[in-house]
Design goal:
The chain is of the alpha/beta class. The chain folds into two domains: 204 residues, Rossmann fold, CATH 3.40.50; 172 residues, 3-Layer(aba) Sandwich (Rossmann fold), CATH 3.40.50.2000. It contains 16 helices and twelve strands. The strands form two sheets. A seven-stranded parallel β-sheet has the order 3-2-1-4-5-6-7, with helices on both faces. Strands 10-9-8-11-12 form a five-stranded parallel β-sheet, sandwiched between helices. α5 packs parallel to α7 and α10 runs parallel beside α15. The longest helix is centred in the C-terminal third of the chain and has 31 residues.
């Protein structure tokens, strides 16, 4: 019997993002649950650690800077029977690089699957913006001379986005399976045109299991705090798009711990950038000793174990919200694109604004409300989780059919 060779990629694995690594760990488990003997290769920037942890082969990270070997990409895709674009929000965040990988795989006769991939309402504007330079200057001059009737900057940007959407449609129509992360991603994808047979699944990271907290390496003071009964507010602020008016956020922190009956736990989803940002925020607090930073590189299962000890979590990182939902900890989202609100919607929640325009009064009131209503949230969360896992199981069965044909 032929051993199927499967390449996992399309996500910047190995780049210090706990959410991405949670996706990877879980998609490997899903593939192995379908086909235990599968020969799995992961495209990652952290090959040695990934290979050791997950018992997989690895190859360099394709599709993301710094420049990768296009020759090796073509060779790797041709050598594998199936390429799985393994999750994240790449359909809107970085559509061009990953659709290019799909095109190369399809041209080589390799089957292609999108599994748990999400899409924001808007494509990443940075990819389609005509940046300052001679061409933009000339176009702006034409706009001025025509009193705004001819806006070549807008036309150029719109044309670039239209071509990207057409490319997405054409490439996904050739895929063997498109299983998206949520219904809102399907709605966003429909703006690219007709793509039949799209399945709505869920994020692979929902199947992650927590580590044993007692085996997680932590300072003793932090460990004691996590095990204590004092209410703990988990916070993650992404350094990718920093929150505006941080002074108001810090004021919220100080209010929450002012009477010394609560603690704040900063939970970075990137041990480098998020940690540095949140340590800066902690030091600016009036009561910095009433907040703790979980520093160092952590496995996704360890972050999940830590999250399970929180009484409420507020995050601008989607995957900390996803992890919190696994253990039914109340969640508050600060939006970075529509993906956060998409996840909150089944819980009957909305974000408290975006990183650019956060409603700090709402943030404060939501923290207070959810601290008081954890039991009610847990009931809702259990219902939502059941529905999400049913969708994920459905997507897994679709993937099983593809793998069975390899």
């Amino acid at each position: 019997m032929k051993v199927p060779k499967i390449l996992l990629g399309g996500v910047p694995f190995g780049r210090n993002n706990v959410g991405d690594e949670a996706i990877l760990e879980c998609i490997v488990q899903i593939v192995r649950s379908i086909c235990p003997e599968a020969d799995i290769t992961v495209s990652t920037d952290d090959g040695d650690a990934t290979s050791k942890k997950l018992n997989v082969k690895t190859v360099q990270l394709f599709g993301f800077s710094p420049p990768f070997s296009r020759k090796l990409l073509k060779k790797t895709l041709k050598e594998n029977d199936l390429f799985i674009w393994s999750g994240a929000t790449g359909l809107s965040d970085y559509p061009e690089s990953t659709t290019a990988m799909l095109e190369i795989a399809q041209a080589a006769g390799t089957k292609t699957v999108l599994f748990g991939v999400g899409m924001n309402e808007r494509l990443n504007p940075a990819l389609f913006t005509l940046f300052p330079g001679p061409r933009r200057t000339a176009y702006q001059t034409i706009k001025c001379c025509t009193m705004g009737l001819i806006d070549l900057v807008q036309r150029t940007q719109a044309a670039k986005e239209m071509r990207a959407r057409e490319r997405i449609r054409e490439t996904l129509n050739r895929a063997d399976l498109v299983a998206l992360r949520d219904p809102e991603s399907l709605t966003a994808l429909s703006r690219c045109g007709y793509i039949p047979g799209v399945f709505v699944g869920a994020d692979s990271a929902l199947t992650l299991e927590p580590a044993d907290l007692d085996r997680v390496e932590l300072p003793e003071k932090t460990r004691q705090l996590l095990h204590s009964d004092i209410p703990k507010i988990g916070i993650c602020i992404s350094a990718q798009r920093e929150i505006q008016n941080a002074d108001k956020l810090i004021h919220c922190f100080d209010q929450w711990v002012e009477n010394n009956t609560r603690r704040i736990i900063f939970v970075p989803m990137n041990p480098l950038t998020d940690s540095a940002l949140m340590e800066t925020l902690r030091k600016q607090m009036k009561y910095p000793d009433r907040a703790v930073l979980i520093d160092g590189r952590r496995e996704p299962s360890e972050i999940l174990a830590i999250a399970s000890q929180m009484d409420v979590i507020a995050s601008s990182r989607l995957h900390l919200l996803i992890l919190a939902s696994i253990v039914h900890v109340p969640i508050i989202g600060i939006s970075r694109g529509s993906k956060v609100d998409n996840f909150l919607k089944p819980f009957g929640l909305q974000s408290v604004g975006s990183v650019e325009e956060c409603d700090f009064d709402r943030l404060d009131s939501e923290v207070q409300r959810l601290l008081d209503e954890r039991a009610a949230f847990e009931m809702t969360s259990k219902t939502v989780r059941k529905e999400l896992l049913e969708r994920l199981n459905g997507a897994t069965e679709q993937l099983r059919q593809v793998i069975s044909q390899l």
